[in-house]
Structure formats: structure tokens, C-alpha cells
Specification:
GO terms for molecular function: hydrolase activity. The protein is an alpha/beta fold and 487 residues long. The chain contains 17 helices and 8 strands. An 8-stranded mixed sheet has the order 1-2-4-3-5-6-7-8, sandwiched between helices. Strand 5, helix 4 and strand 6 form a beta-alpha-beta unit. It starts with a helix and ends in a 5-residue tail after the last helix.
Amino acid sequence: MSRKRWVVLALALLMIGLAWVGVLGARSGLVVRQIARSDVPLIYLAPQNQTRVPGVLIAHGFAGSKQLMLGYGHVLAHAGYGVMLWDFSGHGGSTLPQRDSLQADLQVAYEALVAQPEIDATRLALLGHSMGSGSVMTAGIQQADRFAATVAISPTGAKVTPESPRNLQLQAGSWEGGFIANAERLLDRAGGENENLAAGQGRSLVLIPKAEHITILFRQASHQAALRWLDATFGRQNSSLYIDRRMAWYGLHLLGWLLAMGAILPSFARSSPALSQISKFQVRSPIRRWGSLLVSALAASGTIPLLGGGKNLAALGGVQVGGAVALWFGIAGILWLGLLTQFPRPTLRALLLGLSVFALLWIGFGLMAQLVWLQWWLIPTRLALWPWLALGFLPWFLASGMAQQDISGGSRIVWWLGQSIALVIGIFLMLQFSPQLGFLYILLPLFPLFMALFAYVAALLNSTWGYALGCALFFGWAIAAAFPLAS
């Protein structure tokens, strides 16, 4: 490596080290316990050296995990609460098939919470997001004498009344209009705004500025609104100064890994011999590259509903929604390759390079995510899904690697934008024919972010197969990690 790359690598390692100090430092002063109870994986956080603290159950949403809710967990634990987070069946690290009712998992978490030595079982509250909001509101209604307060973030639905659940706070992001409407309907059914928390009749709706369904979970305004509501419920005066910055540290960690990859990968990646066998017209013609991309994306969107027929696409391949995503990429990728007419032969060196790219992406993206926002380690059932998901993504990334070969930096930005637009339009059209996959509407903004990551990898490599294999393995792992298992 050149001296410049050594300097970049040193800077990257410094950033990575600082990020780990920041993330691990967020646990300072806290008790952290990993618990498994009745096959439900749980995480418990509480302040050290304190007893008789109020307890809070924290529930994640669809395609979420206990890690995704750790921002609320850290804020509340540093403020003097004991919190229990868990994975619903079929989600995260749960080995259980998805149940028809979420309440059984919540009951397991409740029993684990009250069993902790720091908890005052007479002072309990609930907090949940999206799908989890329905579960916690239902628990607050069914066991109104058990839970003194409920915080429902991006709320779905429940049979709320002016009497139950007790002390209901509703939160919604200003950019998630449908959930704002849900929250307003719930508030109306619950009797409207009410400050009488002493009688358990408190009612409030909080709009979190510039937040949508996912980013609301990482907004300090949401964390603090929940904390203030619980403090008011339990009559606590709080002096905690903790602000959850773990996602910022995670971002620094990811940036450090990307810089490290930029210093390391070019030393191992050389021109692919097989690329020279493809004519400039076939690979570099703008009409062929852009036209084949658009046609393949649109054709895949119309083909999937026909292939699905009367079958439930949402549970395709044993993973909810994610299986249909892999199928869309697979069909679009095969069509794209067909329109490009040729592709380079794989070489052993390119395949080894692809495995190295996957390893670097896996560590950089996921290792810290396990502690911050995503259940990254795959249980055996999910691990078995990974190869076929990666295989579904491989044709797309192979065609994408061909189309991006040897283009300039400015053109690469244009290509990232064009590929992102084609993806979003293609998947949006698929959803018009397959409404059972509607959860993807929420995730559409994430596809351009992943494409930006992959465009960066393509810029570092001149190996179509190395790029395609590394990105397909990584994206397949991400889908296997994030989406719920089908029952």
C-alpha cells in the first residue's frame, strides 16, 4: 500500500476504536443482562446499585428486534428505570415460530422483569412501537391494575377507552401521516387530552418533528417525551443528563470501516481478465445499460404477481416479505443479464475477493449493530435461509457490476441515483399488484442507502464477480437478519 493509504487506514482504525469506546461507554453505570426465558431472548437494563426502581416493558415493531429499541432502554435505565426488551416470536433471535398472538411473549417478558432484584413490581409501565404498540396497549387494557402507564409510538390499534389503558401517551412522527391519523383516532376514543395522571386518566399525543416510522426510534425528542411521561406518572424528579448517541457512534464506526476498505481493497483488486471478453458496445453503451436496467425492473414488477398466483407471497421461502424481495431481485437480475447478453467468467481469485468483500461488509456493518440496533447474529433457522436469499440477489449484482465497470466517479454517482430510482419504482409497482407486501412501503427509503454502499464497493473493485458475490452475500445476510420468519 502507498503511504497515503497507510495514513487513511490509521485514521480509520482510530475512528473505529473511538466508536467502540463510545458505544460501550453508554453502558457505564448500568446492569446489563442477557436472558433467555421460555425460548424468548431478552435484554435487561437497570441502574447499578439501586433497588425498588420502576420497571418498563419495551416492545419492538414488525421486522424489528429488541436491539432496535435500545435507545429507549438506555435513556430510561440511565434515568433510574429497570427495562426489559425482548424479541417477539419469529423476530430477531427468537427460535419460536411466529405466534398468532403477541401477548404470550409479552407475558414472558413481564415475568422476567418482575423477577429481577432491582424492580419494584408495584410500579410498572409499557412502551411499544408500531406492531409492539398494539401489544402494549392491549396489555395495558387487559391488566389495567398491573401497568400504571403506556407509551405507544407510531401506534397501530387497540380497544382503548377513557379508563384504559392507564395514562396513555401516543407518539407519531411528523412524516408518517397514516400513524398520525391512527394516533388521533385512538386519542379521541380514549377521551381526548387529559393531564390527570394521578387518577390514571392521563392522555397525550406528541408529534415528533422531522421523523418517520423508523427514524422516530432514534430521535431524542421521542426518548425524552416518553421519559417525562413516565416520570410524571410515578412522581419522579429526574436529573439524568444522558443522551443516547449510540447511533452516531455506529455511524462513525461504519465510516471508519468504509475508509479501511478504501485503503485495503484496491491493493487486492485488479482488472478482471474476463471483462476484456465483453465488447465495449455491450458493457458501455448507455442505451444498453440504462435501457436494460429499466426494462428488467419493470418486467420483474409485473412478473412476480403472476408467479405468486393465489399463493401468499408475504411468506415466500419461510421469511416474511424478504423472500419476495429476493425473488424480485432475482427475476430483475436475470432479465438484466439477458439484455446485456454476456457476463464475465468467474475466476478463483474473483470469488476469493468476493468472500473478502463480504467479510469486511459483515464486520463493518453488523458487528456493532448487534449492540446498537439490529440482531445481526443469525440463529440456525435464519442461517439456513441465507444461501438462497444471496443466490436470489446474485444476478442483479452481477449485472450491476458489469454496467458499472470502468465508469468515472461522477458517472458512478449518476449510476447510483439511476439504479436507486429504478429499484424504488420497480418495487413500488410490485406493491400495487401485491398489497400483502405493503410493509415494504416503509422500507423504500432504505434501498438507496444500500445502493450507495454497494456503489462505493464497486468503485473500489474492478472485479465484476468479486463485487457481485460480496454484495449478494451481504445483502442476503441483512435480509435474513431483519425480516420475520414465516410461521
